[in-house]
Amino acid sequence: MSIMDTLNGEISDMFWFVDDYFWGISFVFLIGLGIIFTVKLKGLQILKIKETSSLALSGVADGRKTSKISSFEAFCIGMGARIGVGNIAGVATAIMMGGPGAVFWMWIFAIIGSASSFMESTLAQIYKEKKEDGHFYGGPAYYAMKGFGSRRLGIIAAVLLVLTFGVGFIGVQSCNASNALCGAFEFENNNLVFALIIAGLAGIILFKGLKAVAKFSAKVVPAMAVLWVVFAIIAMCFNIDGVVNAVSMIFSYAFTVPSALGGAVGTIIVTGLKRGVFSNEAGLGSVANIAATANVKHPVKQGMIQSFGVLVDTLLVCTTTALVVLSYGNYSEIYALGLKGANLVQAITSASMGDIANYIIALFMFVFAFTSLIGYYTMSEANARFVKDSKKNVLAIRILVVIVAFCAACVTDVTIMDAFSDTFMAAMAAVNMIIVALLSRKVFEAYADYRKQKKAGIEEPEFHKSALSDATGVTEWE
Amino acid sequence: MVTVDQCSKAIKVLGIAVVIVGIFTGYFFHKGDNNMMFIPLLIGFALIFVMYYFIDKRAELVAGKKVDKY
Question: How does pLDDT run across A211-263, given as a tens digit for each residue?
């Protein structure tokens, strides 16, 4: 038995075993607390969507004027991290494993998760810290340490995050992107060539520094998301008769398992949750790292922007992918193709658009994976600097990310990376949600302050830590 | 009238209970008994809601007042 067989067999089985139990715990915390936050915030993620969306698109010019990261740039880096292979391959996998109804549950969990994203991003801004390079850093590690006065808890969160995103998620993104490219461009040792391209490009961008990362993502991400939606709409036009059926299937299979699949309703719901969380990352604390870097006048602004990002990721981008797949025909016809992930999307789109669709999907996968990789690096660096703020640590993380991207892209079977990332994603979600819940009062106080200023007619509310009943650990916001 | 200490104890006990219930949820999911999974899951939600009540209550007692309305 080769090393790869052992990795993909026994070790991934071990991770999948642990994964089921970790997800059992995470499910309760993610959904239970998400519902509580939604109620306490009075459904702001939906009822204030006009405000959150206009905030997300503001500050476009700000980043050009200063060396600091603007609100819009932080939104784009966050979207760059969120919009990844999960929006294409993940959605297709969700449909194959859970049926069309899994998409319905992805929507439900996105709406609930959006409140969690508001909470963690606002908390990240409250507890952010300016380092010697003049940039802000924050996220679960920082708010755990500063909120509870426990550096140990912060280090646990930081290490967990680096394992989940710096290794797991980057591995999944690289592997999926490489597989899609190999599927479209077949030649000898193609996986090695694409691994070198992905890792090489990542190395060039990562070593140029955080501001360069922000500028790159700010340009690429909006264009990338729009182009994908446009491409998906064009693909749907080839199966326009199937689009209405696609929407109907999403609702009709929300509580009914397709006969081709078997199993129980729980499979649909859990599949929708897992793929939804993998895609929009709500509650994982990942995007909170990015939210903390933004230069804003009030923490709630970033909370609102990132909560909007969750909805864009799932309700717009994932939905367009789902409609492309489901417009192909009835679920039994889709299931009979016997494909999953990006290969399923490639097969369906190439059936109507020709072979060019294979190349287009492959390139989208590459770009999506790449910008996600950049976003995950940003988070990993912030957490490495938390553990020890030194140039050696930053260099070590950059080298780790490039090596993981290269090795994962060489691998043809994504099973081990999926198993690893799923397990640590569940652990990260549970730990982060507990911390956010225990510190939630700070967020509600900040939100109350924001609303009070808005009601008083202040267009651009400014936050001062005196608005909090207990500002212990808050080092900014004088 | 609950005290801060009582709230802290309740949070710890309920947190552990949620984790145990979550493990049972995972157990049924791992067995493939996805419908049975909903029993511990719903119990877990109920426990979380109660746990959060105590988290909120403790924060209110420490601060000496409720969060302003918004």
Answer: 666 667 667 877 888 899 999 999 999 988 899 999 999 999 999 888 877 77
The whole-angstrom distance between A159's CA and the closest CA on chain B is 21
Q: Determine the residue type at A109.
A: F
Are the beta carbons of A228 and A87 closer than 8 angstroms? yes
For residue A360, give the nearest of A92, A198, A189, A181 by alpha carbon: A181
Q: Which residue of B has its CA nearest to A452?
A: B70
Please give the domain boundaries of chain A with CATH numbers for all domains: 8-42+65-455 (1.20.1740.10)
Per the CB < 8 Å rule, is B15 touching A434? Answer: yes
CA contacts within 13 A on the Cβ side of B8: 5
Which of A36, A42, A438 shows the shortest C-beta gap to B49?
A: A36
In this structure, what DSSP letter does residue B65 have?
S
Where do the structural domains in chain B lie, given as residue ranges? 4-63
Helices A101-126/A415-438 angle, 10° precision: 50
> Between the ranges A59-63, A70-74, A191-195, B30-34, where is the mean pLDDT highest?
A191-195
- How many other β-carbons are positioned within 10 Å of the β-carbon of residue A374? 24
Q: Show the CA angle centred on residue A376, arms to residues A33 and A186, nearest 5°.
A: 120
Q: What residues of A are in contact with residue B18 (Cβ under 8 Å)?
A: 25, 28-29, 32
DSSP states along B4-38? HHHHHHHHHHHHHHHHHHHHHHHHHHHHT-TTTTH
Neighboring chain B residues of A29 at a CB cutoff of 8 Å: 18, 22, 48
For B70, the closest of A20, A267, A448 (CB atoms) is A448
| C-alpha neighbours within 13 Å on the C-beta side of residue A26 | 27
d(CA A20, CA B31): 10
Interface predicted TM-score (ipTM): 0.96
**B residues 10-69 lying closer than 8 A (beta carbon) to A:** 11, 15, 18-19, 21-30, 32-35, 37-38, 40-41, 44-45, 47-49, 52, 55-56, 59-60, 62-65, 67-69
pTM for the model: 0.92
A148-199 residue pLDDT tens: 999 999 999 999 999 999 999 999 888 888 887 887 888 888 888 988 998 8
Cβ pair A137, A293 in contact under 8 A: yes
Mutate to test the interface with B, among A17, A20, A22, A436 (most CBs of B within 10 A): A20
